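Researcher: Here's the sequence for the chain we discussed earlier.
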Amino acid sequence: MKKVLIVFGIIIISLELALYFFWYKELEFMKFFVLLGICHLANTAIIFGILTEILPKKKRKLIVNLSLGLAISFFLILYFNSSRIQNWIDDDGILTNGSVVEKKYGAKTSPYVITRFNYNGLNYKSRLTIPDSRKFETIKLGDSVLIKFVREYPNMNRTEKLLK
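Model: Thanks. This is the structure I predict for it:
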């Protein structure tokens, strides 16, 4: 049984790596993330099966370690996915003008503005954090901003800066 689990583990790890390095531009954003999560959970189950056969007496410690490893690896996937999206916006992003539509004070965050831009007849929103409260007070509704977004997914965007 251990050999079968190892073979399945190698196959799924190969699929996960291929998905991450080669197919991420071919699949839609959510399809990519769901498939990556399914591969990751399958790998965790396979590793759990292999370790259960190797270490049957230490199951409690094994479950704690696997849970911790799963949580850490899930956060690593989120981190790498968000940096991949930011790199995609940097490399293939389109610059457009938008306007400030709302000013907000966060309860535990710096003040921020909600911006809006139009692409292909649809309105999209973005957000810009302003750490300096004096600068935040000088911003008016309707001020122009520069927004960078990905053509295929305009919801993946970033407000670059305020235009004066």
